[in-house]
Amino acid sequence: MKMDKWLLTLVFGLLTLGGCSARVVTVSPGPLIRVEGQPVSIRCDVRDYSGPREQDFEWMTSREAGGTRTKIISTFDASYSSPSISKRVASGDISVVRLKDNEVELKIAEVKSQDAGLYWCQTPSTDSVISGNYEAQVQLIVIPNTLSVSPQTPPQEVPEGSEITLSCNVTRALTHPTYLSVSWSLKNGATTEEILTFGPQGDVVTGAKFARRYADGGIRLVPGRNGVFELVISRVTTSDGGTYECNGTEWTHENGGKWIKIVENAKEMGTVKVIPTGQSLSVKASSSSSPSSTSQLLSPGDTLTLLCSVTADNLQALALEVTWLAGDRDIVTMERSGVVISNTSSSGAQGKRGEASLERTGAGEYRLGVKGVSAEDGGEYTCRVRAFIDKGGRSEGGGRRWHMASEKKSSPVTVKVSQIKPSYTVKLEPILNPQMTAEPTELACHVTNITHLPLGGRLGVTWEHTTLPGIGDDPQTSHRIGSLDGDGNLLPGSMYSDRLKSGAMSLTRVQPNTFKLRILRTKEIDMGQYVCTVSAWSVSSQGDMVETTEYNSSQTTVRWDTKRPTLNVVAKRIREASVGGATFEMSCTVTTENLGEAGYSVLIQSQESLESNVRTIMTLSPDNVLQHGGATDPNRRDSLVLTKSGPAEFRFRLAGVQLSDRGYYWCDITAWTKQQPGQAWTKATSAESNKVRIGFQENGPSFSIAIQSDDTSVYPSKTAKMECSLSVSGSSPKTDDLAYEVRWFFTRLRGGQTTTQVASVDRFGIVKAEIRNSSSEISIERIDTHTYLMNIFGTQDGDSGEYYCVATPWYLSASTGAWTQAGELTSSRIFLTVQFAVWDSLQLPLLYGAAASLGVGLFSLVLGLVCAQCCCRNTTHTPRSRNKLMDLEMD
């Protein structure tokens, strides 16, 4: 009875064998190539097992296939190791580390050549049924350490801006397929930064700090022969100083697709010190007539010549910016590109100082020249030099990238100009004082009590104006109106240049000692305080006129009571648009106060509702130039008219109104004035009119849209069809009075959520297919008046995704006889799937697998029955000595 029960249990276990998981033991993919003396780790894991969660492992090795296995180490038996291995296990040279319940790692601290061979990882069974594999093997190859790294010592000191070559020889004896990489690093203090790594696949990886310099060519890799690699760092800066190290690494590429570092060797190349440019940069200023002198005495009108000498250890690698300063003011600069910028004429003091020039006479030699010096040119002159180093590459603006290495100034050179300055008195008085806007203004500047004016000397004048508080954009700021120099030349100020050139303002010398300022039509901005500055000019030794001194007059105020102009605009409906297609017309009438003759600019604006955005329909300039705004449909511009119907009246007409034209319309009018004919318009004031509404109702048809497909799942290379159906209700127009614009859109299943248009057909029947990245083709056909069919021929996997259509109906309005555009309609979305024929490809393999499984199962059943009758006589169960393992009989 017990035997029958046991047989039934065994049969049931065999029948359920196909539903149990098979134990799988795996180790690191091999063969494993490692270097003698280096650490080695081999991982082993088991899965799809039954029994306790924590599994035990046993490691064995053999020198060759079929040889005697030597026991190495076990996770549960401390005496498992063979005598030849036990000492290394006891010393910790060989150990096993449990990583997880089902994963361990065999570790060899320093692998030896005799450790090469086959390694087995075995797991004793804890399964109720023997199934799968219980051990796995991997081959370990141990090669000698032949990696050699021989760096060449770089120079100990290099000047900033020069070049460093780091040469390193990395070799190894090629006995097995291993690969090399070489890397350079820089240690500066406690910080070590990777510069560049080459290999093991021939790729280049740069450190974060050096990536841009490598891309710009500031760092170059030069592979040589016989394992020689050179790293060239050009345009070095002080941050490149430090200790350089060369690292050679030997790699192996295992079957699992991973790169494994098996040995590396790092050698220190040497310490490099980058000498800053500032240590060797020297700047000296001297007089050209006496290089050792630090002062120079000149007479008015003479030419000042000074030399600036620049020296540096790395002068050829520097780009210099040289500036001469008079006191603390820059007078002339030669940029590093060689362009000379003079500041003597742009500082507002033209005529007070001589014109400066700067030229390069040799390597590091720069000469300053100032012609026609005057007393204003006296003082201390200093040469300032800024040294730049080209960092390579381009900046975001497209120019070269520069690093300012140093800046130095020379000792000052004192320049003295001897002169007795003229003396005189300046008085400013008004001749014509305006009482209102547009009246003339005239001011006279008188010079009296003139003494010490040299023979041939002349007087010049400069007029300045300061606006009153609250008038103008920049009150209380003085602006130069213009000046007359010693030769009588008119030099207008930037703000008044146009008015002086047109004659609206004039500066004249009516007598040798009297100057006048006249404004023909005075503006409100002209109110304020006026000052005249009279300068004395003398003839220099070169025959040029140079300024020697100047005196200011007291301030004179020009002011009158002003009244602001006002503008009022009234919009009135002339023609009402009660139905679609009718004509809408309105007029805008302008009334003004405190404004004389003026021109008007008109903006016709609209908005759908009082809260919506404002659109500009048309504009009319003061010169009657008509333009259409951005909100105007180009096809309807002939229906829009804006005219000037009177001196202060404008009319706007919109023919053939549509539903989209409904909303509010008004005029935005600006008044402009001119000081005199030919001048530019000046804005006076502006105002908006009241709003006139177009609010007709059009009871047109209503439309709806739907999309459908008979089959949303197709196989590759098949044709997918999708129908876009439209329906119309309400006052349905005739077939000939109805047209649609239809567009198809697609959102890809993979590759993002971007929606693209794939095809379209306009209301005239013209089909347009967009360019796509798929090999499938798309066609559009109109099945009937309201139905459009899209065909996708030769579908591919990339055609999977969401599709929908967008339609814009057009109908011929019965009331107006004009084509009217209805609102845009968007359909729902359908999802098209291009399937892969998985079942067809798996039918035959599944059939073979099922037949094989059935045959093996029947054979196992018969074999189990025979064994039970013949072999298994003793039913007494003897448990194994270890509580973690199942009975051997059950195994």
From TrEMBL:
The keyword Hydrolase does not apply. InterPro entries: Ig-like_dom, Ig-like_dom_sf, Ig-like_fold, Ig_sub, Ig_sub2, Ig_V-set, IgSF_V-set/TM_domain, Immunoglobulin_dom. The chain crosses the membrane at residues 846-872. Residues 1-22 form the signal peptide. GO terms for cellular component: membrane. The keyword Chaperone does not apply. It is a single-pass membrane protein. Keywords: Disulfide bond, Immunoglobulin domain, Membrane, Repeat, Signal, Transmembrane, Transmembrane helix. It is found in: Membrane. PROSITE patterns: IG_LIKE (PS50835), PROKAR_LIPOPROTEIN (PS51257). Its main location: membrane. Gene3D superfamilies: Immunoglobulins. It comes from the Eukaryota. Residues 22-131, 144-246, 291-385, 422-549, 701-826 form the Ig-like domain. PANTHER family: PROSTAGLANDIN F2 RECEPTOR NEGATIVE REGULATOR, V-SET AND TRANSMEMBRANE DOMAIN-CONTAINING PROTEIN. This is Prostaglandin F2 receptor inhibitor. It comes from Seriola lalandi dorsalis.
